[in-house]
Amino acid sequence: MMSSEVIKEAVAQDVTGGFAALATAFIQESLSHMVPWLIASAAVIVCDLCFGIRKSMMMKEEVRFSKAIRRTMGKMVTYFAFVCMVCMVEVAASSEYGIDKWACLLVCGIEFCSIVSNILKPKGYSLNVKAIVAAVLGRVLGGNKKEYENVIEKMKNEE
Asked: What's the pTM?
C-alpha cells in the first residue's frame, strides 16, 4: 500500500502538470489571436507618429524626437495591453463574440482620428470628434446628412 503522503504528492503533480498544459495551450491560442491585431495597431501608431511629426514641421513647431518617441511608446504600451487583454478574453469566450476585432478597430479608429487631425490642423481645420460620434450614431439610427456638416470645422485665426 502507498502512503497518503505519496498519493497527495502524485495528485499535486498531476494537477500542476494539467494546469501547466492548459495554461500553455491558452497562452498559445491567445498569442495566435493577438499577433495580427498587434501588427495592425503598431502600423496605425507609427503612421500617427509620422503624421504628427509632419504636422509639427509644417506648423514650424519644435520637433523633439525623444518626446515624440516617448509619447508613441506610451500609446503602444496602452494599446498593446488593451489588445492583449481583449484577445485573451476572446479566447476564454471560445472566440464567439469577435471582441478582439472590435477592440482593434476601436484602437485603429482612435488613431485614425488623430492622423486626420494631424493632416487637417496645418491647413487651418480641426476635427470635431463629438460631431463624428453624433453623426455615426445618427446614421445608425437613421439620421440625415445635415449631421455631417460640423465634422470638420475651420479654425479661428489666433493672433
From this structure: 0.72
